[in-house]
Amino acid sequence: MFSHYAIMSRTKTTSDLSFYKSRFAPLIYDIISQSMFFFVGGLANMHDHAVSILDIQPGMQVLELGCGPGRLTRSLLDAGAQVTAVDQSESMLIRASKRAEGATFVKSNLVEFRPNQRYDRVIWSFVLHELTEEERAITFKYGMDCLLRGGFACILDHALPTSGLFRRFYANLIQGLEPETAEAILIDGFGNELSRLSILIKERVSLGGGTAQLLRIEKQKR
Questions:
Q1: pLDDT digits (tens, 9 = 90+) for 70-87
Q2: What are the tens digits of pLDDT across the range 166-202?
Q3: Fewer CB under 10 Å: which end of the chain, C or N?
């Protein structure tokens, strides 16, 4: 079990994400995220792989939920997408708007956000682990409901490698950096949670040497 690798302290919880209010948050986030994935192929390579699975065609409308400092946003634009990127952090959005000029940025808490149009693709990028299961259910509902016919949604988030020592190291790293809500995702990989919401996992792709996963999901047909 993941809990066997627990460490004693946490840097933040879902009720205390004040880190993202700092003007230095984008820089720190960039450094940490690039460092985490440096030895498993790099963050840029992971984003390129994720975008290839999204199968972006020029002009497609893409909703990115949790854009952070805009690295994935930039990759989506480069693939030809028209991107609406949502984040609750003002400092992240300022950095993202400089990195990914041409995207439409929306400042909003993901629980309170409601799309005003439909999209070919919806992606949650390294953000769902910071929400409770109840909060994730809310964003899953509107994320799936706003898809155009033939569109699909993807989740890009943390995962645990299969290798014993690396798994132990990475589990401790995530527990030190991320809120407690990340544990359930790492243990279950969204499987049971999505099933309860009648959402099917159509494809699960391991990225970054097993440290991340991309899930292609769709509503279960009734």
A1: 999 999 999 999 999 999
A2: 888 888 988 888 888 998 888 889 999 999 999 999 9
A3: C
Find tokens 């693939």 and name the residue: 79
Q: Tell me the chain's radius of gyration from C-alpha atoms.
A: 16
Residue 96, both tokens: 């993202």
- Are the C-beta atoms of 58 and 110 separated by less than 8 Å? no
Q: Are 70 and 103 in contact (CB under 8 A)?
A: yes
Instruction: Give the number of other Cβ atoms within 10 Å of residue 120's Cβ.
Output: 21
Rounded Cα distance between 1 and 146, Å, is 36
Q: What number of other Cβ atoms are within 10 A of residue 158's Cβ? A: 22
